[in-house]
Design goal:
The protein is mainly alpha-helical. It is about 65% helix and about 10% strand.
């Protein structure tokens, strides 16, 4: 279980540290090109949810954030029961999701009312480390269940074939 919580803590530390560095070393809307045509750091404040969805929508966003925080709490409860029963990919993915969600919603948004975003790719909204971890974790969970369900389905077929004989 130390592995799982260390992932959550590492994500929170990395996200909060990178946001702090951007906030203290860049001006709002400042952009620094890292790889021409591919990657920039652009400092923006996001009052909406992931990828600036529903930004500046007033009271609606407060309700959505409340729902997100309740969802995080539910995930933590479920996660605490499931960690012992899953493999490393599941644990890593859930750690990334929970760490990213806690860092963005329970820390940044609750403290300052908005989130610092700074990673900019072409044709994509500006995002941060926590957003990246949530997306990577969701992809990992998808791979985990695809792989697991594939094996389970094969096992069910073999079990059915053995009972049919």
């Amino acid at each position: 279980m130390i592995f799982q919580w260390s992932i959550v803590i590492a994500v929170i530390v990395a996200d909060q540290l990178t946001k702090y560095l951007v906030e203290t070393r860049m001006h709002l809307w400042q952009s620094i090109t890292l790889i021409k045509g591919l990657l920039k750091f652009t400092y923006v404040r996001n009052t909406g949810i992931g990828f600036s969805f529903l930004a500046n929508s007033g009271k609606t966003i407060e309700y959505i954030i409340l729902i997100i925080v309740l969802f995080i709490i539910a995930m933590l409860i479920i996660f605490s029961f499931m960690w012992k029963k899953r493999n490393w990919l599941f644990n890593l993915s859930m750690g990334l999701i929970i760490g990213g969600a806690l860092s963005n919603n329970a820390i940044s948004r609750v403290i300052s009312g908005s989130v610092t975003d700074f990673i900019q790719l072409p044709y994509w909204p500006v995002f941060n480390v926590a957003d990246s971890c949530v997306v990577a974790g969701a992809i990992g969970i998808g791979f985990y269940f695809l792989r697991r369900d594939g094996r389970s389905g094969k096992d069910r077929i073999e079990s059915h074939n053995q009972r049919s004989r």
